[in-house]
From TrEMBL:
Keywords, sorted A to Z: DNA-binding
Protein name in UniProt: HTH tetR-type domain-containing protein
Every HTH tetR-type domain range: 13-73
Source organism, top-level taxon: Bacteria
Length: 192
């Protein structure tokens, strides 16, 4: 049996992750539309049927990779919002520090930041906002409860804040530090 044809058994979650990570790399190299499940399987070193065992289609594979990425990416920010000390400034400082230490490099950066994948990057941005919405609303609810702010509809306010940050975060003419400072400045003006 040829070396590249040796079957390697891996735990299901490890194989699933390997397929997602490889797919995102192949999407970045070839483009989403030009990539087939056969291309992904070849890059992983498995037969296409194994990829289909884990993901019924290329679209499902992509959607699950994005969902997992969003959850992983947002976890430290969610933690910062949940662990706030009752004031908005410290929570924003912690969230900004997390943003800055990430180096603003995403796990699937090579795919999402290619100019021809702008639509996919927009999908990612909105997916992050959708994911963060209940956590942001809960954060503002807690600030309402302790009298730090007075906002009548924290869900709408959270949507305004989250979706309003997209143009700033995606502005490549700003450094990560400038992005964080600008968002904090605008937030402080909105909550006075």
């Amino acid at each position: 049996m040829a070396k590249d044809k040796i079957r390697v058994s891996k735990p299901p979650e490890e194989r699933r992750q390997e397929i997602m990570d490889t797919a995102m790399r192949v999407f970045a190299e070839k483009g989403y539309e030009q990539t087939t499940m056969r291309d992904i399987a070849s890059a992983v070193g498995v037969v296409p049927g194994l990829c289909y065992r884990y993901f019924e289609s290329k679209q499902v594979l992509f959607e699950q990779a994005v969902r997992q990425y969003v959850s992983d990416y947002c976890a430290p920010i969610v933690r910062a919002l949940k662990e706030h000390s009752g004031d908005m400034s410290s929570a924003f400082d912690r969230a900004a520090a997390l943003f800055l230490t990430s180096g603003s490099r995403e796990k699937y950066d090579a795919f999402f930041h290619k100019e021809e994948n702008r639509t996919f990057h927009t999908l990612l941005s909105y997916s992050i906002c959708d994911y963060m919405l209940p956590f942001a609303a809960e954060f503002f609810d807690s600030l309402n409860a302790n009298g730090t702010i007075s906002i009548s509809d924290t869900k709408s306010f959270s949507q305004f804040i989250l979706y309003g940050q997209i143009p700033i975060i995606n502005d490549e003419s700003l450094t990560p530090e400038e992005k964080a400072a600008r968002i904090k400045e605008y937030m402080s003006k909105l909550t006075k």
